[in-house]
Amino acid sequence: MAEEKSIEEIKKERDEYLAGWQRARADFINYKKEEMERIRGLMEYAEAEFLLNILPILDNVERAEKNISDQARLPLGQGFLQIGQQIKNFLKSHGVEELKTEKEKFSPEFHEAVEEVEGTGLEQGTVTEVVEKGYMLHGKLLRPAKVKIIQ
After folding, report:
1. CATH architecture of the domain formed by 98-151
2. All structural domains of the chain with their residue ranges
């Protein structure tokens, strides 16, 4: 009888250890998932910060492109334009998309109004000019477009 009790106690102890081990294993698996999600979030944040810092370079390249005369579009100008295209391709390969804003209705979610201008045939609150392009990253706003709107 004492032997039977000790076997029952041993089985009970075994079941407790097994249940404890299973809980610890499940906790560890959940911890790994949460940690991977946290790391993924940090990487997405770092990528967004990096890409956001490249956008002013692209802005300056595009401003310069507007001021390049047809004669300057020869070898040196062509190289400059090619650099601009490479930057655009790099951003696109990382999921950056340009916001379409010209002649769109102003949306504070995607636009930042820098000036109101007199209306000329367009509806009030319509974007008339893009001062600085806006961009999306994987469907989320990376940088709002700075625009002029009709008052």
Report:
1. Roll (2.30)
2. 1-94, 98-151
Distance CA 142, CA 55 (A): 10
pLDDT in tens, 30-62: 999 999 999 999 999 999 999 999 999 999 998
Name the pairing type of β-strands 111-117 and 145-150: parallel
Find out whether 132 and 59 touch, Cβ atoms under 8 Å.
Answer: yes
The pTM (predicted TM-score) of the whole model is: 0.74
Q: Which position has the token pair 């029952």?
A: 8
DSSP labels, 119-150: -SSS-TTBEEEEEE--EEETTEEEEPEEEEEE
Where b means 16+ CB within 10 Å and e means fewer, 12-39 reads: eeeeeeeeeeeeeeeeeeeeeeeeeeee
Query: Hey, what are 107's tokens?
Result: 């949306």
Dihedral (Cα; 110, 116, 117, 121), 10-degree rounding: 50
